[in-house]
Amino acid sequence: MPYTFQFGVIANYRDELLSGLLLTIELSVTSIVLGTIIGTLLASLRSMYGGWIGRAIKFYVEVVRNTPFLVQLFIIFFGLPALGIRVDATVAALVGMTLNLAAYSAEIIRAGIDAVHKSQIEAGQSLGLTSFQIYRHIIIAPAIAKVYPSLCSQFVLMTLASSVCSAISTEELSAVTAQIESTSYRSFEVYVVATLIYLALSVVLRGVFALIGWLAFRRRPTLAPATAIEGA
Q: 225 pLDDT exceeds 70?
């Protein structure tokens, strides 16, 4: 018996899909901002300090990068209550996404910091720049500019990985999709629609990140050489 496509049925659940999409965007944007800030701080500390600080940061990064994101979510959502710390599914998802992204961002940004040549730092010192000015203008800004494409790719991957949060009952897009499938029994249609939504979200995010990168890291035009004064 031939299968009859009924995408119109999925339109009846547009409000649920929109709600799930908005939560996915909220989780993604918030975790991207917080994860990048934490990652930048960790990368800076690891590059500037050795000893136990550097080893502790390296340990954190390696643990997060070498364990499944799903397991990390389970520890936060199911494990922390054993220690008396209870968080709801949305908060657990946000914490998990932020900590995961922070570890990857820290390693990416650290690679950018290590690519800054020491002679540039020495040049800044010879010009009398303060430590903060050197860090801001010579170290961290060029470092982020170098690794910005890699960061953007990680941001999109984290947005797509938010679908894993449905495993702890977070009402994001994937969880809503599963709920719609269980009530409509239109598995093919609902998951095709969800796939298209994720695809559109990824494309939009890449466009937004590209615009942000162009505005933040575009080269400023240099001044043209002064021309000779007529009649001089």
A: no
